[in-house]
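Quick one: structure for this chain?
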Amino acid sequence: MSAFLGVVRRDVRLSLRQGGEVGLVLGFFVLTVLLFPFGVGPEPQVLGRIAAGIIWAATLLAAVLDLDRLFAADFADGGLDLIALSPMPLELAVLAKIAAHWLTTGLPMVLISPLLAVFVDLDPAAIPMLMLGLLIGTPALSLLGAVAAALTLGARRAGVLVALIVLPLYLPPLIFATAAVEAVLTGASARSDLLLLGAIALAALALAPWATAAALRQALE
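Got it. Here's what it folds into:
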């Protein structure tokens, strides 16, 4: 566990020290949401109905933007070889790097989302459900994205390949999270949508570290 936390702290410190990549992701997230009203019009009824979809679409695009930094730097400087040779299982190290990635990208987007929800006229009663969906769904985005990042490690134009692989996998969290917000807006129960979203997150937690570690071992051979 100490080694796991050490990898998390190291990656978080590196991300905060560099700053530019994290700021780019958050800036892209904010600007994408802010641009939607100019495209669909400022009518509150229209914006309020699609507000959750706007925020989630921006979240998915921002998450894809940052995935290539998960393993690329360590792969380039040999740090990934040292991690693979360390006593800590590679699957646990992968999980630590994914956790650090979520702490520096996913969590800030969750915290910013209420302000953006107000800007796009989402009903205040639905904002807690939006945040809950993001809190459950964004770790799944990082987990699924790690698999794609590992599969494309060392490839040319890896960012484009990651997007092509991972965006279809991001559709189920998008569907169920926005459906949960829609249920709140219409007075229906969001329990089933949240359970399905949680099931996706748990399945990703159980399977993604193993798949990612296998892809990394293949890249290191």
